[in-house]
Here is the input.
Amino acid sequence: MAEAAASFSDGVTAARRGASIAPTGHGLDIAPFGQPPLSWRYDEIEIVDRGPPLVLARRGAPARLSVSEPGIAIEIRARLRIEPSWRRRSIIRAAAIPAAILVCALLAYVAIMQGRAAVGLVARAIPPSWEAPVGDAVADQIARILSHGEPKYCVGEPGMQALDTIIGRLNAAGAPPIAPIRVVDTELVNALAAPGGRLVLFRGLIDGAKSPDELAGVLAHEMAHVAHRHQLQALITGLGISFVVQLVTTDVTGGGTVAGAAQYVATAGFTRGAEREADALAKDWLVAANISTVPLADFFDRLSEKEKTGAVPRFLSTHPASPERAELFRAANRGGPPVLTPDEWQALKAMCKR
Amino acid sequence: MNVSVESVVPDKGPQGLESFDESPEYNGKGRRILGIVLLNALITPLTLGFYRFWGKTKLRRYVWNAIRFRGDPFEYTGRGMELLIGFIIATVVLAVLYGAYALVVWAWLRGVDKAVWQPVASVVFGAVFLFLIHYATFRARRYQLSRTLWRGIRFGQTGSAWRYAARAFGWVVLRVLTLNLIAPWAAAALQRYRIEHSWIGGSKLSFDAKGGPLFWRWVGTWLLFVPTLGLSYAWYIARQFRHFAHHTRLNNIAFESNLRGRDVVFIYLPYFVLLLVLLIAITGVTASVFRGITPTNAQDPTALFATILQNGWPQIVGALVLWSIAGRVLAAYFLVHRQFRLSCRTLRIYGAADFSAIAQTARDNPRFGEGLADALDIGGVGGV
Here is the structure.
């Protein structure tokens, strides 16, 4: 049994006093200068600083023992290494990080696989009546931005009636009722569904449409978004994703950029899935309503011509590939007479003229 | 083996007074810090970001331990779990705050002229955010001090984060109104609040510096700012640090610093130069990616993002990874390692102190980590 000099602070004051220490079979005998002797068991001892000097503590207590004599320090560390509770602790410590990585990989897998289902559950819990005012605000805001000021809506009465005819046919085939459509006088070739069944149609889409059936196809697609409440789901998904992305990326230099990129990839994944769902439902309605789906397929063919600028990797794209969508609608076609008479179609085309 | 007990008893005067005049010792190794930071950067993404709380704790433990005063190391006793829980609480609080703000603004802007009131709403939001940043900084300091030990004695911070944030906010307003001429007084007042509420065990630090003696130097700093390419600011920072150290006391212990402006420059200049080199290198790698951007798609963030990614997402991902890892390494080396080393080397602590008068005190310490500061991403420099 060796005995050595050390210094001891009792954890009550910051005073430091000399002490003689002696490692025994089961612990450390400490005799501080001018204080009663004490004994620390090896299984209670923690290393505060490997030093030199080696600084020790008794688990959870503020007293500190500083061992500057190298021989004794080595002897104490050797005894701690063979102490069973110490070996247990070091095994747990070594296993903790791989275990954490595994658990996180599992969590990520479940979130990716079951995330949409969870979002759907949350969305169902929110009453549709809450969506309506938000939808009106969003739709008006979009119209205002695209009109560079007061919203410019196309209000030609015969054209509105023609739109209602198409919507009536789709409603009869199972599509949900929607609020009066907003047609915005802008060249943009697009249409979108705001929350609460608020549809916004852009004049460019009507101008570019080759037939009423094509327009009916686009409307069916947007109404399918309404039926699935995709806008609300997108909102919930966005909140969830931004929470996770924030957790993962704060504390990273350039965290804002990383967060933006991660959010984009995750959101793109959501929209891609939503577009597929909307296409599937729209196809069923069009067939049930006896409307030809070939014009919509042609529309996607024209779109894919425009997209041939560069290849976006699948996981970065917000939409399914256009050829794939064209194929879906072409295969589903059961034919049918044009959804509007030539007169109605002309009225619709002219509804933005004043 | 028998060693005389007397040989290690500190040199004590007649009334148990220890007299000393020394600098704290810093023995941190740059290589070890680099290792910790790189390991953190590797494990953190693999654990969806959760590991960073433990990584930060590990780095703090190492750096705190590397500082010794009178032969005894400082200790950091914080836990990764405390930081994680604090972060989650703060995220929930922030989400509620953001939500409430969005609702109020939305309801309010429906009935009023948006062109007039939208900027007002933004200013209000900015003010709340500024207030929160100061609040969070004070809370973070409280957590860190409560987890700092020397010779087993806990440090601590009292005072109210609300009051501190209110003062800091008031000083910002005054600085704007006085074209920032009042900055030395603002710095002294806030430092006084921080120091006068800092404790080692039951002993409180005291601070009696005024802003006045710094005023003309501050004016000179701005007159010389352009001719010296901004270096005058480093001289001022060093001067202010010396002034504040000189006016800080703990019982009979006094502090003195001989920090020079050039010391500050030697830390921050290489840091910013290397950061710039890194940025230029990354820009070079990713330049091709930004070529396809036209004014049309630059207006639409989604289209812009899609264009960038489609022109070469591997370069973008690689650049971000490089930027994030190299950025952390540089910050840890210069802003943590070199900074701590310099602070210890230039600080002088002297006096005749009875350390048995510095007694452990039970204090109402925070249970969880510096959540808000972490959530707002102002947790501190270089991941510490």
Q: What stands out?
A: Confidence is low (pLDDT under 50) at residues 1-14, 379-383 of chain B.
